Amino acid sequence: MRIKDLCPDERPREKMRQRGAKALSNAELLAILLGSGTGGKNVVDIAQELMVAADGKLALLDAMPLERLVSHPGVGEVRAVTVVAALELGRRCMEEHALSGRRAVTGAESAWRLMLPTLKNLDHEQCWAVFLNRSCFVLGKEMITSGSLEKTVIDSARILRRAIEKQSASVILVHNHPSGDPAPSQADVRQTEQVRKALAAVEIRLLDHVIVCEDCFYSFSEEKTLYL
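Request: output the structure for the sequence above.
Response:
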């Protein structure tokens, strides 16, 4: 069935105009991004098939490699790039909301929520530093290193330099474990202590090191892994 053969109320664009974006399913919103059908299928059918390929989850669609999107029937390179761009805009919007209002980072959970939009669904480890002022408001956040599936090297010198440049009173380290297990490795513990000592030398405090997974986290401070 062609998209123009659908009832007006069932066409994604018309439905959005009449009822708003929130009334649309994920597949219908995706259909608007894809634009039109191809190969004898209407755009809603293609969008639904793409969501099935992602097990019906936007998080898995977000994690899908660009090459897989391009090769999906009816998508192609131009539409795949459009979908990836839209998902990235959504992620950046979430990050802006997390930073808006100059809210203080009050503990490990707030640090986890701040960084989750950036770190979830990655297939490799990244280490980030969150720089705070004396009231624990976020001065900025920056990726320090990017590693492999199972490890990343924490660059103490870079963290120290950036903390001084930003006139930070304290720093929170954050990195992800793609495995889903937030427990720290011995290398995580050792490198965290190196960062703590480097910052302490210039009277900047390492408040915590939070290991991020999609549905849980590990806090060095809360678990008293180190004397932070």
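DSSP finds nine helices and five strands in the chain.
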